[in-house]
Amino acid sequence: MKLWGGRFTKATDKSVEEFNASIQFDCRMYAEDICGSIAHATMLAKQGIISQEDKDAIVKGLKHIYTQIEAGNFEFSVELEDIHMNVEKRLTDAIGEAGKRLHTGRSRNDQVALDTHMYVRKEIASVAKLIVQLQESIVKAAEKYGDVIMPGYTHLQRAQPVLFSHHMMAYFSMLSRDFIHLQYAWTMADMMPLGAGALAGTTYPLDQEFVAQTLHFGKLYDNSMDAVSDRDYIIAFLEFAAVLMMHLSRLSEEFILWSSSEFKFIELDDSHCTGSSIMPQKKNPDICELVRGKTGRFYGHLMGVLTMMKGIPMAYDKDMQEDKEGVFDAIDNLKFALTIYSAMIDKMSVHKDRMREVLEKDFSNATDMADYLAKKGLPFREAHAVVGKAVHYCIEQGKVLQQLSLEELQGMSPLFAEDIHHYLDIETCVNQRNTYNGTAPSSVQRQCRTGHDTVSKEQDQIQQWHDTVAAVYDLVK
Ligand code: ARG
Questions:
Q1: Among candidates 190, 189, 199, 215, which has minimal Cα distance to 41?
Q2: Between 1.20.200.10, 3.40.50.300, 3.40.1620.10, 3.40.50.720, what CATH number should domain 109-204+218-357+446-476 receive?
Q3: Is 84 a catalytic residue?
Q4: Residues 48/27, Cβ–Cβ less than 8 Å
Q5: Which parts of 311-379 fold into alpha helices (H)?
Q6: Which residues contact 233 (CB under 8 A, 6 or more apart)?
Q7: Cα(193) to centroid(ligand 1), Å
Q8: Domains of the chain: which residue ranges?
Q9: Is 88 in the pocket of ligand 1 (CB under 6 A)?
Q10: pTM above 0.90, yes or no
Q11: Is the pLDDT score of 92 beyond 80?
Q12: Nearest to 181 by CA among 219, 236, 130, 235
């Protein structure tokens, strides 16, 4: 019989049972469910709601179930619907009467909320580590290729020369914001819902503060109906994940372009590429394409939960069971993507000479030529027009600006002097852009230094998260 079967006279239809169940995916929250139940039972005994002996039997039984699941010796049953009832039923089968007292003062509504909060917190701690690892790979590459200059683009047209390291550090900055986003998701998840019961609180003298402390939660919910029906922390996590994937997708697009024969700016390591079953010459950046492609489902997961939540009345509704698969899928794919990207950046080769060759043959220094004239007193708009004409002239002559003689240049503006060729040098173009966040080596070195500081602050945060999480899971040891 079902744990809730008392008022029923018929068995559940088999396909209803399967459709209704969540054990197929929520089984991954077994550690959270068991730790949560240990905390709950401990509190029940402390409050005199169950006996000390019952509590001891429950805790021992739960720890045994934990070892069985860890060892792969636990068969989850669809009939028992979800992780909560699978564990509770097994506990009761093992220890009898005492097991039946575990669910006192608790509903699956606050139980599932508790488990999911704990699970999300745990995964935030491990995803955070991988973000930082990727950031470290990026700074390392920025430092390693500190003298590489590449064309910077707008509209995917060559615009101005930039340091390759500057380009890479842009992604570092994006990931720093992702980390802040993740801290927000942690704050949202760090709230303890147990004690809300089904929706209204319970008639037992629970000590919710004690449960929160035992499970190392920062806060209690103020309102029990909100506690069982809040999924903002899941939305916060999925928002974080969607934005992070958007960032990785942009990087993917660049890696794909840069490793094409047309660009040839980088080469990804063989270990990160795949071949073609028909074209023997091919080396494809599949991983980058997959990361770019998978970004779609991350947006889907976020939209899915937002849409699922938008029309449901207070408090818990079964719709909310749909909150988990997207998060689980996002976590799994995020971990893959972050791990692989870090190694990919560590191992890729950067073709400095090829980037240089492209720059030498183009007009990325045109802005610098206009700035040269403007600095000599010509209004910038007029300088812009003079250089525009120079570019046009060069295209007709099959030259680049750097190749124009002083006579040719002075024919265009008397302000041009000997030093113009120095100003048009790719190095000069880069070195002169030494504004606070510009591409000059001094600025990029400053970015790298700040980057190391950011990483070390993030690591402190991660340590704190890991300590919290580890303390929770110690309950089952
Ligand atoms: N499996 C459910 C979920 O994931 C657990 C809560 C079910 N509560 C209920 N009263 N049906 O949301």
A1: 215
A2: 1.20.200.10
A3: no
A4: no
A5: 324-347, 352-360, 366-375
A6: 117, 120, 185, 188, 189, 191
A7: 14
A8: 5-104, 109-204+218-357+446-476, 366-424
A9: no
A10: yes
A11: yes
A12: 236
The response to whether residue 229 sits with its C-beta less than 6 Å from ligand 1 reads no
pLDDT digits (tens, 9 = 90+) for 297-328: 999 999 999 999 999 999 999 999 999 999 99
The residue type of 162 is V
Asked if the domains at 5-104 and 366-424 fall in one CATH topology, the answer is no
Q: Does 33 contact ligand 1 (Cβ within 6 A)?
A: no
* Token pair recorded at residue 417: 């002097």
Query: What's the 71 CA to ligand 1 centre distance in angstroms?
Result: 26
Kindly indicate whether the domain formed by 5-104 is annotated with CATH number 1.10.1200.10. Answer: no
Q: Which tens digits make up the pLDDT trace of 398-447?
A: 999 999 999 999 999 999 999 999 999 999 999 999 999 999 999 999 99
Q: 2 falls in which pLDDT band (50, 70, 90)?
A: confident
Class for the domain spanning 366-424: mainly alpha
Q: How far is CA 4 from CA 80, 81, 108, 212, in A?
A: 10, 11, 11, 28
